Amino acid sequence: MAQQSGIPDTSPEAQIPPLPERLRAPEPVIVVGMVIWLIATLAVWLGDLGPDRALTVCLVGLGIGVLGTVIVLVQRAGVRRGSKGAQEGLDS
């Protein structure tokens, strides 16, 4: 039943369920991004494609993927240690 007062319904029935684990996992996104940057890097390097900075851009993309992987691993180690500052949802 809709409320007339304009206050949102916070009953348990109205709560949005959490996303499934497979949609919250950061690993697939990081891996897919790194693979795409690796393909782009190889295409630019071997095919001599794009302007002079294209290879630099591709290498920076790969570097960001590595940085993302390191961040996830450090946060996951923090979760295992029980650190209060660790990101939630990385318990696997």
Gap from first CA to last CA: 39 Å
Low-confidence stretches: none
* Secondary-structure content class: mainly alpha
Sheet with most strands: none
Number of helices: 3
Radius of gyration, CA atoms, in whole angstroms: 21 Å
What is the H/E string?
HHH
On the 0 to 100 scale, the average pLDDT is 82
Query: What is the approximate shape?
Result: elongated
**Strand percentage:** under 5%
Task: Please estimate the helix content.
Answer: 55-70%
Quaternary structure classification:
single chain
- The count of strands amounts to 0
List its traits.
92 residues, elongated
Helix and strand arrangement:
Elements: H1 21-24, H2 27-47, H3 54-81
Give your account of this protein's structure:
By secondary structure, the protein is mainly alpha-helical. 58% of the residues lie in helices and 0% in strands. The protein has helices at residues 21-24, 27-47, 54-81. The model has no long low-confidence stretch (mean pLDDT 82).
Structure in a nutshell:
This protein is mostly helical and 92 residues long. 58% of the residues lie in helices and 0% in strands.
